[in-house]
Design a protein that fits this description.
Blueprint lengths: L3 H5 L7 H15 L7 H17 L2 H10 L21 H9 L16 E7 L1 H6 L1 E12 L15 E2 L8 E8 L2 E8 L8 E2 L12 E12 L8 E4 L15 E7 L6 E3 L2 E9 H6 L1 E7 L2 E7 L8 E4 L15 E8 L6 H13 L10 H17 L1
Parallel strand pairs: 1-9, 11-15
Antiparallel strand pairs: 2-7, 3-6, 4-5, 8-9, 10-11, 12-13, 14-15
Helix pairs in contact: 2-3
């Protein structure tokens, strides 16, 4: 089976402009309204489908990686036991399919589209109206979606008189029967476009980049998808638009991390500040906030600032901002500073060579209190 690139006659590294040019050249020659016939019609469908895939960057990427942009499986072949009389599907359709109600509509709904949008953590916390650009199919402005060159209109098909189908005799195991078939001249539409639009070649839509404003609510998380109804690709021949899905990806922040609806930040304080206590300032998304460091603060202690976290997406209020304090021990002491620390340790009767685990310290305090109680 030939690839989409072979169908359009371009290389796999062809640019978007080269793909568009190749499609226009083939579309002019193969359009069913100019070149009637089943073979040309089938080739036109293949060319149009190949262009639809390769002109969309996301679909083209999937096709290049997998070789199949939609994963459709092959259908059943013709019935082996009915040679000479048509396949099982033909026989089934002959006796059970309903008579066509009229010509088919040219209009078809546009496809849904998915785009990825990156935002920063602050935008996820508070929400934002974000301007983006979308590469999509839009209604052709030259023909207003009709598919015919301005000043012309689709005309009634002379072959089927506008019915969209014809009657043919089919040989089956039960004899000769009359079966309705799609008109090869108009492909079942009942009308032909003798002068297709020079811009969209009868599709009624063209691809272009258009600006779009999306409202991102406060509290969204990484991977959240937003559905924009009717903002997807324009339909064929004036058909309704599909939907647009926006998948959000939140960039990492240099100061804050997120866990649920809470924000976390780490602040480094000096050994003296931890021992004596102090007040430090943290620049938050809500402006500067004072952090009270209590005397005797230990490395790993957490100060919680209420209601300064992430806005809750589907509920009122906000999470908290948790500030983790890290005590920095100096590594570049002068001789004088070292003497002062040794004097400090001596004044507290601290033996620098003796240490104990947290569990030992806890048990020592417990048994000391137990002993004192019974003395």
């Amino acid at each position: 089976m030939s690839s989409h690139y072979d169908t359009l006659g371009v290389s796999r590294d062809a640019t978007a402009e080269e793909i568009k040019k190749a499609y226009r050249t083939k579309a002019r020659k193969l359009h069913p309204d100019i070149n009637p016939g089943e073979e040309a019609a089938e080739e036109f469908k293949r060319v149009s489908h190949a262009y639809e895939v390769l002109s969309d960057p996301q679909k083209r990427d999937i096709y290049d990686r997998t070789g199949n942009e939609n994963g459709n499986a092959q259908g059943f072949g013709g019935g082996g036991g009915f040679s000479g009389f048509g396949g099982f599907e033909d026989i089934f359709n002959t006796f059970f399919s309903q008579q066509p109600q009229g010509p088919a509509s040219r209009t078809r709904q546009g496809q849904d589209a998915l785009i990825n949008v990156r935002i920063n953590l602050r935008e996820a916390v508070f929400g934002i109206n974000k301007e983006i650009t979308v590469d999509t199919a839009v209604v052709c402005s030259h023909c207003a979606g009709e598919g015919a060159e301005p000043g012309t209109h689709p005309e009634t098909c002379d072959t089927c008189a506008g019915q969209g189908y014809m009657q043919r005799q089919v040989q089956s195991i039960l004899g000769t029967v009359v079966q309705p078939v799609q008109c090869p001249s108009c492909n079942g539409y009942g009308t032909v476009i003798k002068t297709p639009c020079n811009e969209c070649y009868g599709e009624g839509r063209v691809r272009e980049r258009k600006p779009l404003t999306i409202k991102i609510p406060a509290g969204v998380a990484d991977g959240t998808r937003i559905r924009l109804a009717g903002q997807g690709e324009a339909g064929v021949a004036g058909g309704p638009n599909g939907d647009l899905y926006v998948e959000l990806h939140v960039n990492q922040d240099s100061t804050f991390t997120r866990e649920g609806d809470d924000l976390h930040a780490t602040m480094v304080i000096s050994m003296a500040a931890a021992a004596l206590g102090t007040t430090i300032t943290l620049e938050t998304y809500d402006g500067p906030q004072e952090i009270l460091v209590k005397p005797g603060t230990q490395s790993g202690d957490v100060v919680t600032l209420k209601e300064l976290g992430v806005n809750r997406l589907r509920a009122g209020g906000r999470g908290n901002l948790r500030v983790h304090l890290e005590v920095r021990i100096p590594t570049d002491l002068t001789d004088h500073q070292r003497d002062l620390l040794q004097q400090f340790a001596a004044s507290r009767n601290e033996d620098l060579a003796v240490s104990e685990t947290v569990e030992q310290k806890h048990n020592s305090g417990f048994f000391s209190r137990f002993k004192e109680r019974f003395q």
